[in-house]
Design brief:
- The chain has 3 domains: about 70 residues, no CATH class; about 100 residues, no CATH class; about 150 residues, Orthogonal Bundle (Lysozyme), CATH 1.10.530.
- The chain is about 30% helix and about 25% strand.
- Strands 3-4-5-6 form a 4-stranded antiparallel β-sheet.
- A hairpin with a 3-residue loop joins strand 9 and strand 10.
- Helix 4 packs across helix 5.
- The longest helix is centred in the middle third of the chain and has 21 residues.
């Protein structure tokens, strides 16, 4: 039984006591116990709270401590009742870029100071493991798994892994920074997850979404994009569930074959992803663009059909997008 003024008196015993001892008793990262052992968890599990974390035990996993950002991520997934199950190791550090990880019955959680803590599991976790974890081309995860209407995806430092429910297909998309300036690399790194989300939700080819966003926003450099997160120049003539407001700004338009600057009301967004999702929403909720979605496996045809249906006033709009798709091989990101 240990007591301190801040924690009170609490007993430790058995496997949980042995794990606490292994971490350094009260001098270790957990500090003093703040509860007694509590049982009745899933699969006969028990846990005990400490000042800076917990120790969980079950017959199938043994006793292991969780703390800090990794513990917080495990909690967010639902503790032992979530997709990861119980921890099967303690936290292990010394990975690339100062990273740490902890394994669980059905997955793992990886953390770095730059990426935060994120869980990987299931088909996406298996695909990441097959690419050599954080040492591979994808690097560390930068998001948790995100569900969509057709499956799920997860973002990584160097790309994304997408799982499609129809056929249980898993694909990895690695960002290719070859030939890109640092500014362009940074833009693509931030735009790729938004384009993947749009593709998963609405079916717009990733290459088309990226190409249009680059053309419309000047690699994110336009005022409309950098200040108001509008990467496609979508106007406020209609509303959507993604927009956060409207702003009046001047924009270039082709009127009677003449390029002019006119004032228009544009949608504003709370995030880059909202802008990309709204692009998909805009195309799928306007019947005139319906024909394009018969060509989602042919990005060039898709954007030509969108332009032909009146998306932009520039008569060369589709070709400009296709030129960008070719110049930077944006097709490699299509899923």
């Amino acid at each position: 039984i240990h007591w301190s003024p801040g924690s009170g008196a609490h007993a430790t015993r058995g496997a949980i006591r042995d794990e606490w001892r292994a971490t350094g008793w009260e001098n270790g990262p957990l500090g003093y116990p703040t509860t007694d052992e509590i049982c009745g968890l899933r699969n006969g599990g028990c846990y005990q709270d400490f000042q800076n974390g917990q120790i969980h035990w079950s017959p199938g996993s043994g006793a292991h401590a969780t703390r800090g950002a990794i513990r917080d991520e495990w909690r967010a997934t639902g503790w032992e009742n979530g997709p990861l199950g119980y921890p099967t190791t303690d936290e292990v550090c010394g990975l690339r870029n100062g990273g740490c990880y902890q394994t669980y019955q059905d997955g793992s959680i990886h953390w770095t100071s730059a990426t935060g803590a994120h869980a990987t599991h299931g088909a996406i976790g298996e695909r990441w493991a097959s690419q050599n974890w954080e040492q591979g081309p994808l690097g560390y995860p930068t998001s948790d798994e995100i569900a969509t209407g057709t499956g799920s995806y997860q973002m990584f430092e160097g790309g994304a892994i997408i799982w499609t429910a129809n056929g249980s297909r898993t694909e990895a998309i690695t960002m290719n920074s070859s030939g890109l300036t640092p500014t362009q690399q940074d833009y693509l790194r931030q735009a790729l997850p938004a384009a993947v989300a749009e593709s998963q939700q609405y079916g717009v080819p990733v290459s088309v979404a990226l190409g249009q966003s680059i053309l419309e926003s000047g690699w994110g450099g336009s005022t409309l994009s950098s200040r108001y997160n509008n990467y496609f120049g979508i106007k406020c003539s209609t509303s959507s569930p993604y927009q956060s407001g409207c702003i009046n700004m001047g924009s270039g338009e082709y009127l009677h074959s003449s390029y002019q600057i006119i004032s228009s009301s544009f949608r504003t967004y709370g995030s880059r992803t909202d802008s990309f999702l709204d692009h998909g929403y805009f195309l799928t909720h306007n019947s005139r663009y319906g024909g394009a979605f018969a060509h989602t496996d042919d990005p060039d045809r898709f954007i030509r059909e969108v332009a032909r249906a009146g998306y932009a006033t520039d008569p060369n709009y589709a070709q400009k997008v296709i030129n960008l798709m070719n110049a930077y091989n944006l097709y490699q990101y299509d899923i």
